[in-house]
């Protein structure tokens, strides 16, 4: 993207509110990747002439001056070892917001977005440029005449295309409220917006309604979501969802991604890849609430499995114990871990014995989808490692059963 395209992109990302010239210079200085030109007086005059010559941009005078934007770096104080903030950051209601929310209702011009002075501001484009797009005032004259009341606004088509990207359909229809969420997320650039800030301090709506406003954007693949953990004023941690435009999405590991990696590394170092919950708690030094959430993430990711064992199986020197029903005493599954590493497909088939293993079970054991498991089975069948049979059950359902070649002679199924 060349320098002038970067300038137009920054104007479009600012939304229907538009951007003042001082705020535009701030955005360009903070641009990532870095703005290719040095922002001196000559460059600013060159940028001003390019803005005037662009037919997709218009100029408006606000009824009052707007303060300059304040930049936020929410990842500055993130500890790379834990994925958590090392100190409390300012909340959205503590930071000065120069763009208060005011959703524009449906109109015949098809304008969408948020702008508190949408009806009050004056279109001064004709005083800025001629019909031939020649500048009528230079940068110094515009700053002296309008000051921080002058804003540059991109057209609806340009703003929408900048937000959705070139891969999405420009005819996509979304509600005005969802568009304002999209506009706010786009204005955040690489920092994005926290869903808790959107529904709590900006839109001031219930979290469930914000979920449905976000759902439309996720459905059309306009935004991405990441889990985010931040520190509150009380010192406690708050879990929220970080929303980003697809073009600004960066895979960042959160707190529980790092913890799950620590758990896997710890289990792999143990004999038989096995340990107790108490040992794991002592190793990680976490409280019960964090451990509970960690267990939930581990179950969902299928990185480990929870096992249940009899006491005498674990410790032969222990006395035989029974529960109140007279059965052998078993440790609860939450008391022990066993790492769940995907076994090689041929081993999964051969270990299943002469009865074989369903194709679906291959996918479950290897933690892959249906199509991937089918491709694996076809490859093993072509290589002559396994034999595929169609088994019909009494429920009138059929399934493909896989059996390893060395145990075929033991099978009682017809081949």
> Which H/E pattern describes the elements?
HEHHEEHHEHHEHHEEHEHHEHEHEHHEE
Largest sheet: 4 strands, antiparallel
Residue windows where pLDDT falls under 50 for at least 5 positions: 393-398, 407-415
Helical segment tally?
A: 16
Q: Which strands sit side by side, in order, in the main sheet?
A: 1-4-2-3
* Alpha carbon gap, first and last residue: 62 Å
Mean pLDDT: 80
Q: Tell me what portion of residues adopts beta-strand conformation.
A: 5-15%
Label the structural class. alpha+beta
Task: Give the strand tally.
Answer: 13
What does this structure look like?
- There is one protein chain.
- Helix content is 37%, strand content 14%.
- It is of the alpha+beta class and 415 residues long.
- It folds into 3 domains: 3-248, no CATH class; 256-339, no CATH class; 345-410, Orthogonal Bundle (Arc Repressor Mutant, subunit A), CATH 1.10.10.
- The strands form 4 sheets. Strands 1-4-2-3 form a 4-stranded antiparallel sheet. Strands 5-7-6 form a 3-stranded antiparallel sheet. A 3-stranded antiparallel sheet has the order 8-10-9.
- The protein is elongated and about 95 Å long.
- Mean pLDDT is 80; it is low at 393-398 and 407-415.
- Residues 1-79 form the General transcription factor 3C polypeptide 1 winged-helix domain.
- InterPro entries: Tfc3-like (IPR044210), TFIIIC_Bblock-bd (IPR007309), WH_GTF3C1 (IPR056428).
């Amino acid at each position: 993207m060349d320098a002038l395209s970067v300038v137009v992109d920054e104007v479009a990302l600012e939304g229907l509110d538009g951007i003042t010239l001082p705020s535009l210079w701030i955005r360009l200085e903070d641009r990532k990747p870095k703005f290719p030109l040095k922002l001196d007086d000559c460059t600013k005059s060159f940028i001003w002439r390019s803005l005037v010559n662009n037919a997709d941009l218009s100029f408006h005078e606000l009824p009052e001056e707007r303060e300059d934007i304040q930049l936020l770096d929410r990842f500055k104080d993130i500890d790379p070892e834990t994925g958590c903030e090392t100190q409390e950051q300012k909340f959205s209601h503590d930071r000065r917001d120069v763009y208060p929310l005011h959703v524009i209702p449906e109109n015949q011009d098809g304008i969408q977005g948020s702008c508190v002075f949408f009806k009050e501001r004056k279109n001064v484009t004709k005083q800025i440029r001629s019909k031939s797009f020649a500048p009528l005032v230079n940068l110094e004259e515009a700053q002296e005449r309008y000051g921080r009341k002058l804003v540059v606004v991109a057209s609806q088509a340009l703003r929408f295309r900048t937000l959705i990207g070139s891969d999405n359909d420009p005819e996509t229809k979304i509600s005005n409220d969802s568009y304002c969420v999209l506009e706010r997320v786009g204005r955040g650039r690489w920092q994005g917006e926290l869903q808790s800030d959107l529904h709590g301090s900006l839109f001031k709506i219930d979290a469930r309604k914000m979920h449905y406003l976000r759902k439309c954007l996720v459905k059309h693949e306009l935004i991405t979501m990441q889990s985010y953990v931040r520190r509150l004023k009380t010192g406690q941690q708050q879990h929220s969802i970080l929303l980003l435009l697809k073009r600004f999405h960066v895979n960042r590991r959160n707190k529980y991604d790092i913890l799950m990696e620590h758990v896997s590394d710890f289990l792999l170092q143990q004999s038989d890849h096995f340990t107790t919950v108490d040992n794991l708690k002592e190793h990680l030094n976490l409280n019960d609430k964090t451990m509970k959430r960690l267990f939930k993430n581990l179950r969902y990711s299928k990185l480990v499995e929870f096992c249940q064992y009899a006491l005498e199986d674990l410790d032969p020197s222990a006395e035989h114990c029974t529960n109140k029903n007279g059965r052998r005493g078993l440790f609860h599954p939450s008391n022990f871990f066993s790492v769940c590493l995907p076994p090689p497909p041929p081993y999964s088939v051969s270990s299943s014995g002469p009865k074989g293993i369903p194709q679906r079970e291959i996918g479950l054991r290897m933690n892959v989808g249906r199509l991937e498991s089918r491709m694996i089975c076809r490859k093993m069948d072509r290589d002559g490692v396994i034999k595929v049979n169609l088994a019909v059950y009494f429920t009138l359902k059929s399934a493909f059963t896989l059996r390893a070649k060395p145990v075929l002679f033991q099978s009682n199924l017809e081949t």
